[in-house]
């Protein structure tokens, strides 16, 4: 049976892998989005946040005398790459990408809530503070997606109904 300290370290490794996955997913989306500059700009901004978040989580792991899991990181990146490739085969890639991004943000939010509670339980106020900061950023991204999704859908549908206009991405 794992101790609370061991679980916290395990969950931090999971979070690091999750951020690696997010980075790969965001890079894939950004590389193909052409007709939605406001979405591209927000994804680029969140990509930089994601890279910083991965570094912060890694620092929490190292401070707890651990190291990130190369296997978990690699598996997460492979899964994200496969998700990115799936966008090539759908006609509504920007919409499917938004749906996937919103869903992923919700998973990240739940993960960081768990990490905050675990860190507080073991008395690691530094990790709790860092995870709270990251949690707020993930909540902000989810809120942005939630707020902007209806407009994105309308723009996509308008583009799709305009002859000679690319709507997919």
Automatic annotation (TrEMBL):
Keywords: Coiled coil. Residues 1-64 form a coiled coil. Pfam families: DUF892. InterPro entries: DUF892_YciF-like, Ferritin-like, Ferritin-like_SF. The keyword Coiled coil applies. It comes from the Bacteria. This is Ferritin-like domain-containing protein.
């Amino acid at each position: 049976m794992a101790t609370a300290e061991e679980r916290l370290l395990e969950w931090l490794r999971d979070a690091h892998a999750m951020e690696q996955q997010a980075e790969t997913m965001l890079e894939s989306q950004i590389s193909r989005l052409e007709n939605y500059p406001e979405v591209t700009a927000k994804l680029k901004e969140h990509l930089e946040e994601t890279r910083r978040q991965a570094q912060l989580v890694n620092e929490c792991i190292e401070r707890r005398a651990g190291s990130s899991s190369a296997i978990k990181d690699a598996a997460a990146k492979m899964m994200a790459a496969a998700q990115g490739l799936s966008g090539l085969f759908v006609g509504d890639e920007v919409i499917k990408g938004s749906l996937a991004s919103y869903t992923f943000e919700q998973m990240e939010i739940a993960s960081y809530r768990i990490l905050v509670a675990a860190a507080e339980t073991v008395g690691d106020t530094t990790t709790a503070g860092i995870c709270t900061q990251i949690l707020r950023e993930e909540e902000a991204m989810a809120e942005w997606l939630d707020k902007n999704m209806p407009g994105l859908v309308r723009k996509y549908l308008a583009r799709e109904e305009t002859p000679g206009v690319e709507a997919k991405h």
